[in-house]
Amino acid sequence: MISRERILEAAGRVYAKHGFRGATTRLIAAEAGVNEVTLFRTFGSKGALLEAVLDANDHCQQIRRLPDPPVDPEAELTSWVNDHLQRVRDMRPMLIHAISELDERPEVAEFACRGRAEVHVLLDDYVASLQRLGRADPAADTFGAVTMLISSVMGDAMGRPMAPDSFPPAEEAARRYVRCFLRAIGAGHSR
Amino acid sequence: MISRERILEAAGRVYAKHGFRGATTRLIAAEAGVNEVTLFRTFGSKGALLEAVLDANDHCQQIRRLPDPPVDPEAELTSWVNDHLQRVRDMRPMLIHAISELDERPEVAEFACRGRAEVHVLLDDYVASLQRLGRADPAADTFGAVTMLISSVMGDAMGRPMAPDSFPPAEEAARRYVRCFLRAIGAGHSR
DNA sequence: ACGGCAAGTAAGTAGGTACTTGCATACACG
DNA sequence: CGTGTATGCAAGTACCTACTTACTTGCCGT
Protein backbone atom coordinates (compact mmCIF):
# COMPACT_ATOMS: atom_id res chain seq x y z
CA MET A 1 0.00 0.00 0.00
CA ILE A 2 2.60 2.44 -1.15
CA SER A 3 -0.02 4.52 -2.95
CA ARG A 4 -1.26 5.98 0.32
CA GLU A 5 2.04 7.74 1.02
CA ARG A 6 2.43 8.94 -2.54
CA ILE A 7 -1.07 10.38 -2.51
CA LEU A 8 -0.51 12.05 0.86
CA GLU A 9 2.68 13.71 -0.31
CA ALA A 10 1.23 14.77 -3.63
CA ALA A 11 -1.92 16.10 -1.97
CA GLY A 12 0.26 18.10 0.41
CA ARG A 13 2.14 19.70 -2.45
CA VAL A 14 -0.96 20.44 -4.49
CA TYR A 15 -2.89 21.76 -1.50
CA ALA A 16 0.02 24.02 -0.54
CA LYS A 17 0.03 25.41 -4.06
CA HIS A 18 -3.65 25.78 -4.83
CA GLY A 19 -5.65 25.54 -1.60
CA PHE A 20 -8.58 23.23 -1.02
CA ARG A 21 -10.78 24.37 -3.88
CA GLY A 22 -7.90 24.47 -6.30
CA ALA A 23 -6.55 21.10 -5.28
CA THR A 24 -8.72 18.99 -7.57
CA THR A 25 -8.68 15.25 -7.22
CA ARG A 26 -7.47 15.01 -10.80
CA LEU A 27 -4.46 17.20 -10.08
CA ILE A 28 -3.57 15.30 -6.94
CA ALA A 29 -3.90 11.92 -8.64
CA ALA A 30 -1.77 13.08 -11.56
CA GLU A 31 0.87 14.55 -9.24
CA ALA A 32 0.96 11.27 -7.33
CA GLY A 33 1.17 9.25 -10.55
CA VAL A 34 -1.87 7.34 -9.44
CA ASN A 35 -5.33 6.74 -10.81
CA GLU A 36 -8.00 9.09 -9.52
CA VAL A 37 -10.14 6.13 -8.45
CA THR A 38 -7.39 4.88 -6.17
CA LEU A 39 -7.53 8.17 -4.35
CA PHE A 40 -11.21 7.72 -3.52
CA ARG A 41 -10.77 4.06 -2.65
CA THR A 42 -8.00 4.93 -0.21
CA PHE A 43 -9.38 8.04 1.48
CA GLY A 44 -13.10 8.00 0.72
CA SER A 45 -13.46 11.66 -0.14
CA LYS A 46 -11.47 14.77 -0.91
CA GLY A 47 -12.27 16.23 2.50
CA ALA A 48 -11.01 13.16 4.33
CA LEU A 49 -7.83 13.24 2.26
CA LEU A 50 -7.19 16.84 3.25
CA GLU A 51 -7.68 16.01 6.92
CA ALA A 52 -5.17 13.20 6.58
CA VAL A 53 -2.71 15.59 4.92
CA LEU A 54 -2.96 18.16 7.69
CA ASP A 55 -2.68 15.44 10.31
CA ALA A 56 0.46 14.09 8.69
CA ASN A 57 2.02 17.55 8.47
CA ASP A 58 0.95 18.42 12.00
CA HIS A 59 2.27 15.44 13.90
CA CYS A 60 5.72 15.59 12.35
CA GLN A 61 6.54 19.08 13.65
CA GLN A 62 8.11 18.81 17.06
CA ILE A 63 9.12 22.15 18.49
CA ARG A 64 12.65 22.45 19.85
CA ARG A 65 12.98 23.30 23.55
CA LEU A 66 15.08 26.06 25.03
CA PRO A 67 17.87 25.37 27.55
CA ASP A 68 16.92 25.63 31.21
CA PRO A 69 18.58 27.42 32.88
CA PRO A 70 19.59 29.98 30.23
CA VAL A 71 23.32 30.41 29.75
CA ASP A 72 23.87 32.62 26.72
CA PRO A 73 20.45 34.16 25.95
CA GLU A 74 21.41 35.91 22.73
CA ALA A 75 23.04 32.82 21.23
CA GLU A 76 20.42 30.41 22.48
CA LEU A 77 17.48 32.51 21.37
CA THR A 78 19.05 33.32 18.02
CA SER A 79 19.58 29.67 17.26
CA TRP A 80 16.07 28.80 18.39
CA VAL A 81 14.49 31.63 16.40
CA ASN A 82 16.41 30.57 13.32
CA ASP A 83 15.05 27.08 13.73
CA HIS A 84 11.52 28.24 14.21
CA LEU A 85 11.81 30.65 11.31
CA GLN A 86 12.82 27.81 9.04
CA ARG A 87 10.00 25.61 10.24
CA VAL A 88 7.37 28.28 9.66
CA ARG A 89 8.86 29.08 6.25
CA ASP A 90 8.45 25.46 5.27
CA MET A 91 4.84 25.34 6.35
CA ARG A 92 4.06 28.74 4.94
CA PRO A 93 2.02 27.80 1.87
CA MET A 94 -0.03 25.23 3.74
CA LEU A 95 -0.51 27.56 6.68
CA ILE A 96 -1.68 30.43 4.54
CA HIS A 97 -4.29 28.35 2.80
CA ALA A 98 -5.42 26.77 6.05
CA ILE A 99 -5.93 30.21 7.56
CA SER A 100 -7.71 31.61 4.55
CA GLU A 101 -10.09 28.65 4.56
CA LEU A 102 -10.78 28.70 8.28
CA ASP A 103 -14.36 29.92 7.85
CA GLU A 104 -15.30 27.29 5.34
CA ARG A 105 -13.32 24.37 6.78
CA PRO A 106 -13.18 24.77 10.56
CA GLU A 107 -11.51 21.39 10.93
CA VAL A 108 -8.21 22.97 9.91
CA ALA A 109 -8.30 25.31 12.91
CA GLU A 110 -6.11 23.13 15.09
CA PHE A 111 -3.46 22.90 12.40
CA ALA A 112 -3.48 26.67 11.97
CA CYS A 113 -3.47 27.64 15.65
CA ARG A 114 -1.83 25.03 17.81
CA GLY A 115 1.78 25.96 17.24
CA ARG A 116 1.52 29.54 18.41
CA ALA A 117 0.29 28.86 21.93
CA GLU A 118 2.99 26.25 22.56
CA VAL A 119 5.73 28.53 21.34
CA HIS A 120 4.39 31.30 23.51
CA VAL A 121 4.63 29.40 26.80
CA LEU A 122 8.06 28.13 25.79
CA LEU A 123 9.40 31.66 25.39
CA ASP A 124 7.52 32.93 28.43
CA ASP A 125 9.17 30.28 30.59
CA TYR A 126 12.58 31.13 29.22
CA VAL A 127 12.16 34.83 29.97
CA ALA A 128 10.83 34.03 33.44
CA SER A 129 14.03 32.10 34.09
CA LEU A 130 16.05 35.11 32.93
CA GLN A 131 14.15 37.33 35.33
CA ARG A 132 14.64 34.90 38.18
CA LEU A 133 18.37 35.01 37.52
CA GLY A 134 18.30 38.80 37.60
CA ARG A 135 19.25 38.97 33.95
CA ALA A 136 16.08 40.65 32.68
CA ASP A 137 14.08 43.61 33.93
CA PRO A 138 11.42 42.17 36.26
CA ALA A 139 9.11 45.08 35.40
CA ALA A 140 9.30 44.53 31.63
CA ASP A 141 6.23 43.55 29.64
CA THR A 142 7.48 40.08 28.85
CA PHE A 143 4.17 38.85 27.45
CA GLY A 144 4.02 41.76 25.04
CA ALA A 145 7.63 41.29 24.01
CA VAL A 146 7.17 37.57 23.45
CA THR A 147 4.08 38.26 21.37
CA MET A 148 6.09 40.68 19.28
CA LEU A 149 8.95 38.24 18.79
CA ILE A 150 6.61 35.49 17.65
CA SER A 151 4.73 37.86 15.36
CA SER A 152 8.07 38.93 13.92
CA VAL A 153 8.99 35.36 13.11
CA MET A 154 5.59 34.69 11.57
CA GLY A 155 5.65 37.98 9.70
CA ASP A 156 9.12 37.28 8.37
CA ALA A 157 8.29 33.76 7.23
CA MET A 158 5.02 34.85 5.68
CA GLY A 159 5.88 38.26 4.30
CA ARG A 160 9.48 38.07 3.12
CA PRO A 161 8.67 36.28 -0.14
CA MET A 162 6.25 39.03 -1.12
CA ALA A 163 8.09 42.09 0.25
CA PRO A 164 11.75 41.20 0.77
CA ASP A 165 12.81 44.83 1.23
CA SER A 166 10.71 45.14 4.37
CA PHE A 167 12.90 42.68 6.26
CA PRO A 168 16.53 42.46 7.33
CA PRO A 169 18.70 40.12 5.22
CA ALA A 170 17.62 36.53 5.87
CA GLU A 171 20.87 35.50 7.52
CA GLU A 172 20.79 38.40 9.99
CA ALA A 173 17.08 38.41 10.72
CA ALA A 174 16.99 36.05 13.68
CA ARG A 175 19.87 37.72 15.48
CA ARG A 176 18.42 41.19 14.99
CA TYR A 177 14.96 40.21 16.17
CA VAL A 178 16.48 38.59 19.24
CA ARG A 179 18.61 41.64 20.06
CA CYS A 180 15.62 43.96 19.84
CA PHE A 181 13.66 41.50 21.94
CA LEU A 182 16.35 41.36 24.62
CA ARG A 183 16.51 45.14 24.80
CA ALA A 184 12.75 45.26 25.13
CA ILE A 185 12.81 42.97 28.17
CA GLY A 186 15.76 44.77 29.67
CA ALA A 187 18.33 42.08 28.94
CA GLY A 188 20.16 43.88 26.18
CA HIS A 189 23.64 43.76 27.68
CA SER A 190 24.45 40.05 27.77
CA ARG A 191 27.54 39.20 29.79
CA MET B 1 -25.71 53.03 -13.15
CA ILE B 2 -26.18 52.26 -9.50
CA SER B 3 -25.67 48.55 -10.10
CA ARG B 4 -21.95 48.98 -10.50
CA GLU B 5 -21.49 50.13 -6.91
CA ARG B 6 -23.78 47.48 -5.51
CA ILE B 7 -21.93 44.76 -7.39
CA LEU B 8 -18.57 46.11 -6.26
CA GLU B 9 -19.60 46.13 -2.61
CA ALA B 10 -21.23 42.72 -2.78
CA ALA B 11 -18.24 41.27 -4.60
CA GLY B 12 -15.97 42.68 -1.92
CA ARG B 13 -17.97 41.00 0.83
CA VAL B 14 -18.24 37.68 -0.96
CA TYR B 15 -14.58 37.67 -1.97
CA ALA B 16 -13.53 38.45 1.60
CA LYS B 17 -15.58 35.50 2.81
CA HIS B 18 -14.85 32.86 0.21
CA GLY B 19 -11.81 33.87 -1.80
CA PHE B 20 -11.65 34.04 -5.57
CA ARG B 21 -12.64 30.48 -6.37
CA GLY B 22 -15.40 30.48 -3.78
CA ALA B 23 -16.78 33.82 -4.88
CA THR B 24 -19.01 32.54 -7.65
CA THR B 25 -20.70 34.99 -9.94
CA ARG B 26 -24.04 33.61 -8.77
CA LEU B 27 -23.28 34.35 -5.14
CA ILE B 28 -22.06 37.85 -5.92
CA ALA B 29 -25.08 38.64 -8.07
CA ALA B 30 -27.46 37.33 -5.41
CA GLU B 31 -25.67 39.27 -2.67
CA ALA B 32 -25.92 42.41 -4.79
CA GLY B 33 -29.58 41.78 -5.55
CA VAL B 34 -28.77 41.96 -9.23
CA ASN B 35 -29.10 39.63 -12.17
CA GLU B 36 -26.00 37.61 -12.92
CA VAL B 37 -26.02 38.84 -16.50
CA THR B 38 -25.73 42.43 -15.33
CA LEU B 39 -22.50 41.52 -13.63
CA PHE B 40 -20.95 40.30 -16.87
CA ARG B 41 -22.35 43.21 -18.83
CA THR B 42 -20.82 45.67 -16.38
CA PHE B 43 -17.42 44.13 -15.73
CA GLY B 44 -16.90 41.69 -18.60
CA SER B 45 -15.52 38.83 -16.56
CA LYS B 46 -15.11 37.60 -13.02
CA GLY B 47 -11.39 38.35 -13.09
CA ALA B 48 -11.96 41.94 -14.16
CA LEU B 49 -14.54 42.33 -11.41
CA LEU B 50 -12.04 41.16 -8.81
CA GLU B 51 -9.45 43.60 -10.05
CA ALA B 52 -11.99 46.40 -9.76
CA VAL B 53 -12.80 45.29 -6.22
CA LEU B 54 -9.16 45.31 -5.12
CA ASP B 55 -8.63 48.66 -6.81
CA ALA B 56 -11.60 50.15 -5.00
CA ASN B 57 -10.43 48.80 -1.66
CA ASP B 58 -6.87 49.86 -2.32
CA HIS B 59 -7.36 53.47 -3.30
CA CYS B 60 -9.59 54.25 -0.35
CA GLN B 61 -6.97 53.44 2.26
CA GLN B 62 -4.95 56.53 3.01
CA ILE B 63 -2.33 55.96 5.67
CA ARG B 64 -2.19 58.49 8.47
CA ARG B 65 1.05 60.42 8.85
CA LEU B 66 3.07 60.82 12.00
CA PRO B 67 3.83 64.26 13.48
CA ASP B 68 7.14 65.82 12.51
CA PRO B 69 8.92 66.66 14.72
CA PRO B 70 7.88 64.11 17.36
CA VAL B 71 6.58 65.56 20.61
CA ASP B 72 5.23 62.71 22.71
CA PRO B 73 6.49 59.50 21.03
CA GLU B 74 4.58 57.03 23.20
CA ALA B 75 1.26 58.81 22.78
CA GLU B 76 1.76 59.59 19.12
CA LEU B 77 2.91 56.10 18.21
CA THR B 78 0.20 54.42 20.27
CA SER B 79 -2.50 56.39 18.57
CA TRP B 80 -0.99 55.71 15.17
CA VAL B 81 -0.57 52.00 15.85
CA ASN B 82 -4.16 51.76 17.04
CA ASP B 83 -5.27 53.35 13.82
CA HIS B 84 -3.19 51.05 11.68
CA LEU B 85 -4.29 48.04 13.68
CA GLN B 86 -7.91 48.87 13.00
CA ARG B 87 -7.27 49.39 9.32
CA VAL B 88 -5.50 46.05 8.93
CA ARG B 89 -8.21 44.30 10.94
CA ASP B 90 -10.79 45.63 8.52
CA MET B 91 -8.87 44.42 5.50
CA ARG B 92 -7.93 41.13 7.11
CA PRO B 93 -10.24 38.75 5.22
CA MET B 94 -9.50 40.31 1.88
CA LEU B 95 -5.79 40.46 2.61
CA ILE B 96 -5.60 36.83 3.67
CA HIS B 97 -7.28 35.63 0.50
CA ALA B 98 -5.20 37.92 -1.67
CA ILE B 99 -2.01 36.53 -0.12
CA SER B 100 -3.09 32.91 -0.37
CA GLU B 101 -3.92 33.40 -4.04
CA LEU B 102 -0.76 35.27 -4.93
CA ASP B 103 0.68 32.38 -6.97
CA GLU B 104 -2.41 31.92 -9.05
CA ARG B 105 -3.42 35.57 -9.42
CA PRO B 106 -0.26 37.68 -9.43
CA GLU B 107 -2.28 40.79 -10.24
CA VAL B 108 -3.27 41.01 -6.56
CA ALA B 109 0.35 41.40 -5.52
CA GLU B 110 0.21 45.17 -5.35
CA PHE B 111 -2.84 45.10 -3.12
CA ALA B 112 -1.17 42.62 -0.81
CA CYS B 113 2.24 44.28 -0.60
CA ARG B 114 2.02 48.01 -1.12
CA GLY B 115 0.95 49.04 2.34
CA ARG B 116 3.86 47.51 4.18
CA ALA B 117 6.63 49.38 2.41
CA GLU B 118 4.91 52.75 2.87
CA VAL B 119 4.34 52.14 6.55
CA HIS B 120 7.94 51.12 6.93
CA VAL B 121 9.43 54.35 5.61
CA LEU B 122 6.91 56.31 7.65
CA LEU B 123 8.09 54.74 10.89
CA ASP B 124 11.72 54.82 9.85
CA ASP B 125 11.50 58.56 9.29
CA TYR B 126 9.84 59.06 12.65
CA VAL B 127 12.54 57.12 14.47
CA ALA B 128 15.24 58.97 12.56
CA SER B 129 13.74 62.21 13.85
CA LEU B 130 13.83 60.83 17.38
CA GLN B 131 17.49 59.97 16.97
CA ARG B 132 18.29 63.40 15.57
CA LEU B 133 16.68 64.93 18.65
CA GLY B 134 18.82 62.71 20.88
CA ARG B 135 15.72 60.88 22.14
CA ALA B 136 16.60 57.44 20.79
CA ASP B 137 19.78 55.39 20.87
CA PRO B 138 21.65 56.24 17.66
CA ALA B 139 23.23 52.76 17.71
CA ALA B 140 19.92 50.90 17.93
CA ASP B 141 18.77 48.61 15.13
CA THR B 142 15.90 50.84 14.10
CA PHE B 143 15.16 48.94 10.91
CA GLY B 144 14.85 45.69 12.83
CA ALA B 145 12.69 47.28 15.48
CA VAL B 146 10.39 48.88 12.93
CA THR B 147 10.07 45.56 11.13
CA MET B 148 9.10 43.94 14.41
CA LEU B 149 6.53 46.61 15.23
CA ILE B 150 4.87 46.27 11.84
CA SER B 151 4.92 42.49 12.06
CA SER B 152 3.34 42.77 15.49
CA VAL B 153 0.51 44.86 14.13
CA MET B 154 -0.02 42.50 11.20
CA GLY B 155 0.24 39.47 13.45
CA ASP B 156 -2.24 40.92 15.90
CA ALA B 157 -4.76 41.85 13.24
CA MET B 158 -4.39 38.51 11.49
CA GLY B 159 -3.93 36.14 14.40
CA ARG B 160 -6.07 37.46 17.22
CA PRO B 161 -9.34 36.09 15.86
CA MET B 162 -7.90 32.59 15.73
CA ALA B 163 -5.74 32.61 18.87
CA PRO B 164 -6.93 35.42 21.17
CA ASP B 165 -4.93 34.13 24.15
CA SER B 166 -1.66 34.72 22.36
CA PHE B 167 -2.16 38.50 22.38
CA PRO B 168 -2.54 41.22 24.98
CA PRO B 169 -6.10 42.49 25.49
CA ALA B 170 -7.21 44.39 22.41
CA GLU B 171 -7.45 47.74 24.14
CA GLU B 172 -3.92 47.52 25.58
CA ALA B 173 -2.21 45.94 22.60
CA ALA B 174 -1.12 49.09 20.77
CA ARG B 175 0.30 50.75 23.88
CA ARG B 176 2.23 47.64 24.89
CA TYR B 177 3.69 47.07 21.44
CA VAL B 178 4.78 50.69 21.33
CA ARG B 179 6.40 50.54 24.76
CA CYS B 180 8.40 47.45 23.84
CA PHE B 181 9.32 49.13 20.58
CA LEU B 182 10.53 52.27 22.32
CA ARG B 183 12.64 50.24 24.73
CA ALA B 184 14.13 48.36 21.80
CA ILE B 185 15.27 51.58 20.12
CA GLY B 186 16.52 53.01 23.39
CA ALA B 187 13.73 55.54 23.85
CA GLY B 188 11.96 53.79 26.69
CA HIS B 189 12.07 56.65 29.15
CA SER B 190 9.91 59.29 27.55
CA ARG B 191 10.10 62.68 29.23
C1' DA C 1 -1.67 -23.40 -10.10
C1' DC C 2 -4.92 -20.66 -7.74
C1' DG C 3 -7.32 -17.27 -4.76
C1' DG C 4 -7.15 -12.70 -3.02
C1' DC C 5 -6.24 -8.05 -3.22
C1' DA C 6 -4.36 -3.60 -4.72
C1' DA C 7 -4.50 -1.03 -8.57
C1' DG C 8 -5.73 0.52 -13.44
C1' DT C 9 -9.29 1.57 -17.13
C1' DA C 10 -13.41 3.30 -19.13
C1' DA C 11 -17.57 5.14 -18.66
C1' DG C 12 -21.12 7.49 -16.44
C1' DT C 13 -23.87 10.58 -12.90
C1' DA C 14 -25.37 14.74 -11.08
C1' DG C 15 -24.28 19.03 -10.35
C1' DG C 16 -21.65 23.46 -10.56
C1' DT C 17 -18.90 27.06 -13.26
C1' DA C 18 -18.11 31.18 -16.22
C1' DC C 19 -20.09 33.16 -19.79
C1' DT C 20 -23.49 33.98 -23.96
C1' DT C 21 -27.70 34.84 -26.52
C1' DG C 22 -32.26 36.57 -27.48
C1' DC C 23 -36.01 38.85 -25.93
C1' DA C 24 -39.00 41.53 -22.73
C1' DT C 25 -39.43 45.53 -19.68
C1' DA C 26 -38.98 49.99 -17.79
C1' DC C 27 -37.41 54.42 -17.28
C1' DA C 28 -35.07 59.03 -19.14
C1' DC C 29 -34.52 62.48 -22.51
C1' DG C 30 -35.55 64.97 -26.74
C1' DC D 1 -44.38 60.32 -29.16
C1' DG D 2 -40.07 57.70 -30.18
C1' DT D 3 -35.49 56.13 -28.95
C1' DG D 4 -31.75 54.89 -26.42
C1' DT D 5 -30.03 52.66 -22.40
C1' DA D 6 -29.93 49.88 -18.34
C1' DT D 7 -31.76 45.92 -16.45
C1' DG D 8 -34.33 41.46 -15.86
C1' DC D 9 -35.45 36.79 -17.39
C1' DA D 10 -35.01 32.14 -19.51
C1' DA D 11 -32.37 29.24 -21.76
C1' DG D 12 -28.30 27.34 -23.46
C1' DT D 13 -23.03 26.22 -24.17
C1' DA D 14 -18.93 24.07 -23.01
C1' DC D 15 -16.43 22.59 -19.48
C1' DC D 16 -15.06 21.15 -14.84
C1' DT D 17 -16.12 18.91 -10.31
C1' DA D 18 -16.45 15.06 -6.83
C1' DC D 19 -17.65 10.67 -6.85
C1' DT D 20 -19.47 5.85 -8.59
C1' DT D 21 -19.83 1.46 -11.07
C1' DA D 22 -18.28 -2.47 -13.45
C1' DC D 23 -14.76 -4.77 -15.32
C1' DT D 24 -9.81 -5.93 -16.03
C1' DT D 25 -4.95 -6.52 -14.89
C1' DG D 26 -0.92 -7.91 -12.31
C1' DC D 27 1.35 -9.43 -8.37
C1' DC D 28 1.99 -12.27 -3.90
C1' DG D 29 1.63 -15.98 -0.80
C1' DT D 30 0.21 -20.62 -0.22
List keywords for this structure.
homodimer, mainly alpha, 8 helices, elongated, DNA-binding
Q: Would you write up a description of this structure?
A:
Two copies of one chain form a homodimer. Chain A has 191 residues and is mainly α. Chain A is 71% helix and 0% strand. The longest helix of chain A has 28 residues, at 73-100. The first copy, chain A, is elongated and about 65 Å long. The structure holds a DNA duplex (30 and 30 nucleotides).
Provide a quick synopsis of the model.
The structure is a homodimer of 191-residue chains. With 191 residues, the first copy, chain A, is mainly alpha-helical.
Class from helix and strand fractions of chain A: mainly alpha
Q: Please give the share of residues in helix of chain A.
A: over 70%
Strand count of chain A: 0
The stretches of 5 or more residues of chain A where confidence is low (pLDDT under 50) are none
Along the chain, the helix and strand elements of chain A come as: HHHHHHHH
Biggest chain pair contact, residues each?
Answer: A-B, 49 and 49 residues
In percent, how much strand structure appears in the residues of chain A?
under 5%
Report how far apart the termini of chain A are. 56 Å
Estimated radius of gyration of chain A: 20 Å
From the spread of the alpha carbons, the general shape of chain A counts as elongated
Q: Would you tell me the overall average pLDDT of chain A?
A: 94
| Quaternary organization | homodimer
| Alpha plus pi helix count of chain A | 8
The major beta sheet of chain A can be summarized as: none
Question: Strands, helices and their partners?
Answer:
2 copies of one chain form a homodimer.
Chain A: H1 3-22, H2 25-32, H3 36-43, H4 46-59, H5 73-100, H6 109-132, H7 142-159, H8 170-184
The structure holds a DNA duplex (30 and 30 nucleotides).
